[in-house]
Write a structure and sequence with these properties.
Layout (H helix, E strand, L loop, with lengths): L18 H9 L13 H5 L2 H12 L6 H17 L7 H14 L2 H15 L6 H5 L2 H4 L6
Helix pairs in contact: 1-3, 3-4, 4-6, 5-6
Amino acid sequence: MRAQQTAFSGFANPVDPTPAELRAWAHQPDVVPLHTMPPDWDLLVSGDHLIGTLLELALDRGCPARRFALHCLYIYAADGIRTNFRAHPKRRLRKMVESVEQDGDELLRIWAHNVRMLIARPELFDYHDWCEGGLVRHPRRLS
């Protein structure tokens, strides 16, 4: 059972939303359509400050913006791995993968598998798949 969501009326600063604003938007994304957000908004929100919220939203099967949250998880993972974990802590990503392997559905377990594959074989990185939503629109296990 989800806690009742508060009404979402917009972001105070869309390039730096709070976790509460992102959560409220994700449950009412039509209030501020994704196409009206700043360019590369997905890249802006896919950082350490909001990754816990994005993971929570991706785990919520009833969240209308769940696919967006999953897309941001792919961006976060790729950014961490491709920078040899200078951009994001390896421990945090590892804990996210382990959490998803235990509690996630098939879409999230595919994400966890793909993260492990990218760690082992960084040459599997494809910008379209990891940063433009290819692996979200066409889920598949990398091999």
